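G., the chain you wanted modeled:
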Amino acid sequence: MRTFWFSIPVAVLALVVAGGISAQPVNYAAGMTYTADPPLRTDWLGDAGGELTNGVKDWAWDPVTGWDGSVAVNPRSIVIDLASAKSDIGSVVVTVFVSISSAVPAQKQILVSGSSTSATTGFADWGEAVTEDTGAEANYTYTWTGGPVAARWVKLILESEVAGHHSLLSEIEVFKSEGTSAVGDEWMLYQ
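Predicted structure as tokens:
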């Protein structure tokens, strides 16, 4: 009888054993609280304090909240409290509602920063969340992918494309960095 030796990466073996199903990305912002400056307009579309972190991203008026452009100053900001410090933030995704016919344009710019110090100070600039502006009426996804970085508070500074227009958001997600596999790159021998 012949014995054959071959090697399989542990990560591949883990996928085979688990049926090929990989875990969903961890969204640190899910269900977290946030503050806005100026405050979000609650008498208009409403915001019970969790619309931007509740997982709903439909292109419709119901799941959005934001600022009335005729009242709110530009730029506008939101700070999400992740409840505890995270050392491995990999990306931030902001879903913005765009309806040109209703004076809700795409955002000119969304800047992302983070702080481990407090909700009001110590923010380090991480960069800009970018999107492809198609000119269509739809949800636009602005993505920043500069991690891994550490923070407890994540701040977004939004500047409306057209001064005096609304800024409406549907969802904010702060994802854990995918990094390296939890099982590592070790090799095992099987007979």
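The CA atoms of residues 113 and 126 lie 5 Å apart.

Shout if anything looks off.
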